[in-house]
Write a structure and sequence with these properties.
alpha/beta, four-stranded antiparallel beta sheet
Length: 649
Amino acid sequence: MIKLEQLRKYMKSLYDNDKKNKTIQVRGKTLDDALREAAIQLGLPIKKIEYEIIKKGTKKVLGMGGGEWELIAYAAAQDVDGKDIFEEEIAFDMNIRSEYLEQAKNKDGKISVRLQPDGVFLKVTKPVGNGKKATVASAKNLIMRRNIAGYDEALVDKVVRYADNKYVKIANYEYNPAQDPVMLVSIADMEMKAYLVLQSPGPGGADLAAETIKGYLNNNRVMFGIKDDVLKSLEENPVYNEEILVAEGQKQVNGSDAKIVFNFNTDHSTIILKEKNGRVDFKDLNLIENVVAGQQLAKKIPPERGKEGQTVTGKTLPAKPGKNISIGVGKNVKLSEDGTTAISEINGQVILLNGKLNVEPVYTVPGDVNLHTGNILFLGTVIVRGNVEDGFSVKAAGNIEVMGNVGKAMLDAEGDVIVHQGVLGKNEGKVKCGKNIYAKFIEHAYIEAENNVIVTDGILHSYVDSNKKIICQGRRASIVGGRLRAAEEINAKNLGSVAGAETILEVGYDPKSKEKLIELQSQNEVFSKELEEIERNVNTLENLKKVQKALPEEKEKYLTELNEKRMKILSEMKEIKNQIDEIKHHLASLKVKGKISASERVFPGVKIYLKDVMDKVRVEQKSVTYILEGKRIRMTKYEPVEGEFLRRR
């Protein structure tokens, strides 16, 4: 929007230019002829000429009559840069960004005229990019506006032609110091700003230099924040009778307060769900903030001192320093020596409570593990006050203790797993631990324990592996169905059932090693069959090559590929054989012989494995222990479990 003040300035500039501009009256047979004549007389291109039509020409009729065009012509109103003043105001007010970007690349040549005590000086600069060159006519027009007479026109032509951005003296004038511009400075906005007003010079007065203006400001208490670029602009293109901001103070900047940056999520009011295979997993809620010993929990960013300010008169404006705070630490958290970093002393869950950091070694679920809690992953001990529902998992670097039941879920602990009720795996539930598993009962589940599996009521149709002992002792303790493997001992009240459910019991070896052995042997068998097929094809192609002396290119390539694949399989089979030999050696070196015991009965249908020897129970046995003597399984009197294994709950 064009403001009223801008319009006034524009109209005034037109009026001033009209007074200064040379006006001529021209004639021509056509409008173009009249404008060409005006251009010659004014020394300007036609596009920079404005005109008024006094009389329109008329056409001849039958070769007779006709009249000429009459015009009053004068130079178009322009500023010293050769740009239309009003157009420039409009462009500036509308803030046409693209236009200014273009102007930054392309600048017209510039003309400056200065009146100094020792004469009149002219300076012309070259254009930038696609900008227009300054013209002699524009230079002369500007000189005329400054009411300069008797200047050296030839020298003006030369200065415009060279455009070397240097002031060249083009005329003398009678200098009158009394007519120099008068300067008035005002200090405002609590001494944060200084404004300068220059009054137009009188006849014989000289333009002011930037250094002169600066000296005047200094003498009038303006010492700081002087805008040198503004003073330079006033030197090149003086602006008279307007208030110009020539100095600006610097406000003080208060220092920022110290703040603490936490290296974990402190806001659990919103939950970020993750996708797995294109589906949102509502079980992985990540509500626990796990940390490890030595981990940085938080860091303090120190307060800033702040930056002093200064008024234009040089007064200092003091800044307030930022406030300091300290990191609050609670249990199992320590501060670094400089007090800027909080460090966890243990593995566990970090909690921000009442402004203090605490690391808890135990995470307690007050109810069930379900959609409200999501899956649990914790670098310490987990206590579940309720049940672990189907489809959820609990993983802990310490122990896992469940007060209720465990359904078709996944439990994985580096320590013990204690289930106060039972595990109802529904043929998919799995429990793993790095130490012992304690449960009331286990049904249709997969169990792996690095040490012992201790059950009070029974193990039904489950797959149980233990690197030490499987103990099932209690009033109703029975092992029925499934497959149980232990390195040292399997001991229960009853083994098998009256119905004759197949129950496989294996002891005397490392279950994981034997499972790995079976896996490797199966893999080796697959490779053997594949190798047999490859060798058959290789033999066929080689025999064909002997008969035909040479094979077609495709078959020769296929033969090469087969040989490469054979070498690769042979290499892999060699590696598998080495692993098989190592595991067999490990199993053979185990000193433990192992035993299987039942304090009451062993039912028909139970298969007993002691190392590599197998025996199937065909007749019910009572209070018996099975041991290995040589290559034969022998029954002896029942041997009770050594040591205290039943956990009190």
